[in-house]
Amino acid sequence: MVMRYLFWISIVAWWIMDFCVLVLRKNIYSKVLDKRSKFIVIGLILIGVFLAIVPEDFRAVWRTREFGPFQIFGTFIVMLGVTIRLLAIISLGEYFSGDIVVGPDKKLVQRGLYKKIRHPSYTGEIVAFLGLGIVFQHIPSSIFISVFPFLAFLYRAIIEEKKLHGEFGDEFIEYKKRTRMFI
Q1: What are the backbone dihedrals phi and psi of residue 36, each rounded to the nearest 5 degrees, phi first?
Q2: Residue 122 domain-assigned?
Q3: Dihedrals φ, ψ of 55, to 5°?
Q4: What is the pTM of this model?
Q5: Structural domain range at position 143
Q6: Which 3 state secondary structure label does DSSP give 117?
Q7: Do residues 11 and 86 touch, judged by C-beta distance below 8 A?
Q8: Residue 32: in which H helix or E strand, if any?
Q9: What's the whole-number mean pLDDT along residues 9-16?
């Protein structure tokens, strides 16, 4: 029972964190490189969530299933993903934005998680959605809740890298050589 509560607390914390940084936080940057991809990402995630929760057999199983080993493991994966995303947001600090932007001082952040991973924030989201898929333990729903967000963040990372390459040129190429896109 405690793990079920921990699962829901993790989910609510994740939603609140994303709402705060993506909706409530104002974009203070003068140079927005891309806004459109954010809406494509949101759309793909919503499609994945919708397709995951629509099957009646999923909802019937979800309401009656005991919170067993898969759900416990999946909850820890969700918590890991949310933690990775939070650390990425903290690492970027004032540079974090829901849009793809460049700050007025035009600095390529390479500290914290960004030392090793180019997109730790997206990595955290992907890991969290994978954890949801494990918690769901329903093959079609698990695939939808994992694959659609993965494709969304892969798309966003590709768009972001093209924009950052255009802004930072060789500095970004060198950074790309030293880091991985995701984990």
Answers
A1: -60, -40
A2: yes
A3: -60, 125
A4: 0.92
A5: 36-93+108-178
A6: strand
A7: no
A8: strand 31-34
A9: 94
Structural domain count, the chain: 1
**What SS3 state is found at 68?**
coil
How far, in Å, CA of 176 to CA of 2, rounded? Answer: 42
The DSSP bridge partners found for residue 101 are 32
Tell me the one-letter amino acid at 23.
V
Mean pLDDT of 25-54: 86
Rounded-to-5 percentages of helix, strand, coil across the chain = 75, 5, 20
147 has a pLDDT exceeding 90:
yes
Distance CA 183, CA 125 (A): 12
b/e sequence 44-69, b meaning 16+ C-beta within 10 Å: bbeebbebbeeeeebeeeeeeeebee
Chain centroid to CA 102: how far? 20
CATH number of the domain within which 47 lies? 1.20.120.1630
Q: CA–CA separation, 75 vs 69, rounded Å?
A: 10
- 10 occurs within a structural domain: no
Fill in the DSSP letter of residue 101: E
Closest to 143 (Cα-Cα) out of 131, 154, 157, 133: 133
- 90-113 pLDDT, tens per residue? 998 878 888 888 877 788 889 999
3-state secondary structure of 100: strand
